[in-house]
Amino acid sequence: MKSALVCGAGGFIGGHLVKRLKKDGFWVRGVDLKFHEFSETQADDFVIGDLRDQGFCRAVVDRRFDEVYQLAADMGGAGYIFTGEHDADVMHNSVTINSSVLDACHKRGVRKIFYSSSACMYPAYNQEDPKNPKCSEDSAYPAAPDSEYGWEKLFSERLYLAYRRNYGVQTHIARYHNIFGPEGTWIGGREKAPAAVCRKVAMARNGEDIEVWGDGEQTRSFLYIDECIEGTVRLLRSNFSGPVNIGSEEMVTINQLVDMVADIAGKRIGKNHVPGPQGVRGRNSDNRLIRENLGWEPSRSLRAGLEPTYQWIAAQAARNVMPKARVA
C-alpha cells in the first residue's frame, strides 16, 4: 500500500486532501498543531505537533512516503494578512515549517513533495487594474508582492526549487487562488472572502445591509475545494514541477460575489461599503500553463461551488457558536 504524509491535515485544504488520498487507497499520516475543527479526520495516523521543530519533523517523516503534501502555514484572509500586525509571525513560522519539512524529507529520501504556494506572491504592480490583472506564472519577477505573506511564499518557492536543483528532490509547486468550500474557517478573522460573505449574508435579515470592505469593485477569482484537490493530486503525480496556478478564471467583483450569495440565499441584501483591508485591485488565475502541461483545468462555476458552501456556513451560523478545536 502506498503511503502519504499531509502536513497541515487539520486545516481546510488538508482535511479534504486526506479524504481524497484515502479514496485513492493510500495509508495516510496527517500532521498539524490541531485536529480538524469541523470533521473527524480520516487519516490512519494523526500526529499533533509543531512542524517548526526539526526534531519533530524528523520523527514524523519516519519512512520514504510515496507522496508528501506540505500545506502547513501561518495564514488567513485579508483581515489577518493585510493588517501588518502578524507579519513577523507569518514569515517566521511559515519559513521555519518549510525548511524543516523539506530538509527532513530530503534526508529520509522522500522523492515527491508538493508545496502550496499562493497567488499572493505575484507583483502588486501587475494587479492594479481590476479588469485586467496579470497573473501568468512568468510574471512573478521583478518581485513585488503586496504582503509579507506573499514574500514568504515566493522565498519558499525558491527553497523548494533549490532542493530540486541541488538534491534531485521532485518538488511540485502550485500557486493557489482563493480556495473556498465547506469545512473551512468562516469566522474569527482568518476567513477568506467567500466564507466571510456567506456568513454575513446568512446572519443578515432579508432587506438588511452587510459591510463590504472598500468600494467592492476589487476583483478576484475563487476556486472550489474539490477542484483544488484534483489539481493538487494531478500536479504531484505528473512530471511537471511548476510553479503553476491552480485557480479559476471566472473573475468577479466583490460586489458581484455578494449579489451571487444573496441570490443563493433568497435574500435582498444591500452593501455598506466601509474602510478595511482590500489587497490588490484585481487578481485572476491564468490557466494556460496548467492546460498545456496537465491537460486539465478547473471547470466548476463559482455559483456551483457557492451553493454548498453557503448551505454549510448558514448551518454553522444558525448554531450561533464559535467553532472550537477538538482536543486529544
UniProtKB/TrEMBL annotation:
Ranges of residues in domain NAD-dependent epimerase/dehydratase: 4-247
Pfam family, one: Epimerase
Keywords, in A-Z order: NAD
SUPFAM superfamilies reported for this sequence: NAD(P)-binding Rossmann-fold domains (SSF51735)
Top-level taxon of the source organism: Bacteria
Ranges annotated as spanning the membrane: none
InterPro entries in alphabetical order: Epimerase_deHydtase (IPR001509), NAD(P)-bd_dom_sf (IPR036291)
Protein name, per record: NAD-dependent dehydratase
Lineage: Bacteria, Pseudomonadati, Pseudomonadota, Alphaproteobacteria, Hyphomicrobiales
